[in-house]
Design brief:
Blueprint: E1 7-13, H1 20-25, E2 34-39, H2 46-53, E3 57-60, H3 66-80, E4 85-89, H4 100-108, E5 114-118, H5 124-127, H6 132-149, E6 160-164, H7 165-170, H8 182-192, E7 197-201, H9 215-237
Parallel strand pairs: 1-2, 1-4, 2-3, 5-7
Antiparallel strand pairs: 4-6, 5-6
Amino acid sequence: MLNGKKIVVVLPAYNAALTLERTYKEIPFDIVDDVVLVDDNSRDDTVAEGERLGIRHIIKHEVNKGYGGNQKSCYAKALEINADIVIMLHPDYQYTPKLIHAVSSIIAMEVYPVVLASRILGKGALRGGMPKYKYFFNRCLTLFENIMLGQKLSEYHTGYRAFSAEVIKSLNFTHTSDDFVFDNEMISQIFMNGFEIAEVTCPTKYFEEASSINFSRSMKYGRGVLRVSFAHRLHKWGLLKSKLYLPKGS
C-alpha cells in the first residue's frame, strides 16, 4: 500500500512467456499488493510461467478477445479485489516496472488521478530502439489528438498507465473497442469525464521478444485513432453524439 491505498498491477499478456519473469521480478512489492495476469489465449506457456512465478490472480481467455478485451478483464478483476490504484503494465519488458513508485505516488497523494509513462518525453523512444516510422507516426497522431481533444500530452500510445479506481469505475466500456484503439478510446473517455492526466518520462526497450504490431496493424490503429479524435471533438461540439461517452450502465 501507499498512503493507505491498495495497489494492483495488471498485466495484459499475449505470448509473454519469455519476458514475464523479467517484468515480474522488477515489480516493487514493497508497495504493490497484488498482481493480475490476463492471458489472451496465448500460444505459448504464459499461464504456466505465471503460475511458476506465484502470481495469485491469473485469468485465461479461452478465445482471443483482443488487446482491448484483455484490458477490460484486467480492470474488472482489479476492481473485484478492491484495488485503489491500478497500474497497467505490458509484460513484454518494454517498460520498466521500476517507475511504479513514481506513478503510484502521484495518484496516492491525490495530485492526479491518471498517470501515463511517456516514451516521448526526453529521448527514450529512439534511444530504446523504437522504429523511426513508428516514432514519426506517434508524433503526428499525438499532435492531431492534442488539437482535437484540446490537450497537451506528449504521447497517447504508451502501454504503461496508472489509474485511480475512481476513474476506472466511471468509464463505460460497453461501446469501446476490443482492439488496440481501446487505449485511445479510454483516454478520450477520461478527458470527457473531466479527469486530468499526468505524465512521467519512461525509457523503453525494443528487442526480439518484445511485442510489437506490424505495419498493416499500425495503419489500422492509426485510422482508429483519427476516428476517436473526430468523435471526441464532434461530441464536445454537440454535433454528433457518440455512444462512447454514454454514462456507465447505458
